[in-house]
Amino acid sequence: MCMDGGRLELHQFLYSHYNEKVRWALDFKSVSHTRISHLPGPHMAAIRTLAGVSRTPILRVGGVVVAGSADIIDVIEGHYPEPPLYPADAEPRKTALAVQTFFDEEIAPAVSRVLFGELLKEPAYLCRMLASEKPLFTRLTYRATQPAIRQVMRRMMGIDEGSVATARRTIRAGLDHVAALAGPEGYLAGNRFTVADLSAAALLAPACNPPHPDMQFPQPRPARVDAWLNEWADHPGAAWVRSIYAKHRPQRVLPLRVAAN
Ligand SMILES: N[C@@H](CCC(=O)N[C@@H](CS)C(=O)NCC(=O)O)C(=O)O
Description:
Layout: E1 8-12, H1 17-28, E2 33-37, H2 43-51, E3 58-61, E4 64-67, H3 69-79, H4 90-119, H5 123-131, H6 136-144, H7 146-156, H8 161-181, H9 195-208, H10 223-232, H11 236-248, E5 256-259
Parallel strand pairs: 1-2, 2-5
Antiparallel strand pairs: 1-3, 3-4
Helix pairs in contact: 1-3, 1-9, 4-8, 4-9, 5-6, 8-11, 9-11
Glutathione is lined by residues 13, 16, 18, 44, 54-57, 68-70, 104, 156.
């Protein structure tokens, strides 16, 4: 794949934790890119046409399209090896990639399920979060279609009382896991920051409210969103997430262009 000189586009959802993994990897490596923010629900046609799947993140460079946060990070790492996200040695690299897979597959869906269980009850706030970059007309239309979109999102994320209760326990297990696994230097695979730390911190970020413009929920927040954040606030795993953000999440990389669509 040729990335040099190509316009690199990240097709994303604002505040999404899988998308945050890719934003972080691009920012960490100072890769200039354009972010194209889609609205969950209406995104489907455009993303399917682009990538043949409906999930974001999608990375596009010219005619080349890569889907899925882990595969995208792998491509970014291959083309922009410095600073590295993969450990040089085989054993810690295997551990780092296994941690990424665990958080991608087990923890991240639980975070979405519980958080959206709450956010879908706050349609005005949800629209403010997801559509803030859009023109007024699009924001109003998106708000008007929330009842229909809410049903689709509930179904797609498997949100019901039982699944949300199980997902809450899974989130706690994820926070316990990072608190227990972080070594003396505070990292999950070896003694430096890797894709393991990036993945765990990005995917737990919606529960930990790290002070970064890409993930910090807008103010004022509804009481139920505050309650969601308070639920995890004192967990040592949440303190770990915030410390990894403070040490390793670049604030913003320029030039970053945000395209409206
Ligand atoms: N394994 C994928 C999961 C991506 C994913 O679930 N993305 C969500 C947003 S956080 C999505 O696009 N959902 C909408 C859909 O499934 O159509 C990854 O690592 O990128």
